[in-house]
Design goal:
There is one protein chain. By secondary structure, this protein is α+β, with helices and mostly antiparallel strands. About 45% of the residues lie in helices and about 20% in strands. The chain contains ten helices and seven strands. The strands form two sheets. The protein has a five-stranded mixed barrel with strand order 1-2-3-5-4. Helix 2 packs across helix 3, helix 4 packs across helix 7 and helix 8 crosses helix 10. The two termini are about 30 Å apart. About 5% of the residues have low confidence.
Length: about 210
């Protein structure tokens, strides 16, 4: 089982990373959050956590910037009817902490904003994930870090605005609040409507990689 790779980053797209490890290029499927958080193409010594999915006709490697994201991916694909693509869609829409807040507050409306997740699927996901979060120490820690106690989220972290998830992703990459505010100016007029698109728009304005 391949659980981690360290090498030079040679390609970055919102859904795929390519890492050169001692002359061997590894293609890793990833969430938009991970793609937005990695350093610039050409950077060496980049470490990504991984999961290898083996099927009858294929082997697919998935890359994650954090242990929390990989843990949540593992738990999502364990849910009946949720495959790796849908799990990455969830992780591209919400940070692990934001997802923890949604699960803790049973917010089916926000979960249903994930591409490919309807209201019925969102409700079922939340039911299954609530028991998973309750029994998993690492995921319970995400709920605490998201500011959720007694199933009530703090307003500053669980607003329904898409911007809150984008801001959290950009701030975690080291940008200042002032830089984030300037980078997000005009994203609606540019047609960016998902976390992936807005993060890419913001990074372009910040002179980033997307």
């Amino acid at each position: 089982m391949i659980v981690q790779l360290t090498g030079s980053l040679i390609e970055v797209t919102p859904s795929v990373l390519v890492l050169d490890v001692n002359g061997v290029g590894y293609e890793l499927r990833c969430s938009a959050m991970t793609a937005a958080s990695v350093p610039a193409v050409g950077t060496s010594g980049v470490t990504l956590l991984t999961r290898l999915a083996v099927r009858e006709n294929s082997m697919t490697l998935f890359g994650f910037a954090s242990r929390e994201e990989r843990t949540l991916f593992d738990r999502l694909i364990a849910v009946s009817g949720v495959g790796p693509s849908l799990a990455l869609s969830v992780l591209s829409t919400f940070t692990p902490a934001a997802c923890a807040a949604i699960v803790a507050t049973n917010d089916a409306t926000r979960m249903a904003t994930v591409p490919g997740v309807g209201k019925k699927t969102a409700t079922r996901l939340l039911v299954e994930l609530q028991s998973v979060f309750a029994s998993d120490v690492e995921l319970r820690g995400l709920v605490t870090s998201a500011g959720v106690t007694d199933d009530v989220a703090t307003p500053s972290l669980t607003g329904s605005s898409l911007e809150s998830d984008v801001q959290a992703a950009l701030l975690s990459m080291g940008f200042t609040p002032q830089e984030v505010e300037l980078a997000l100016d005009g994203y609606e007029q540019a047609g960016a409507a998902t976390v992936e698109q807005i993060v890419a728009y913001a990074l372009r304005r910040l002179g980033g990689k997307a």
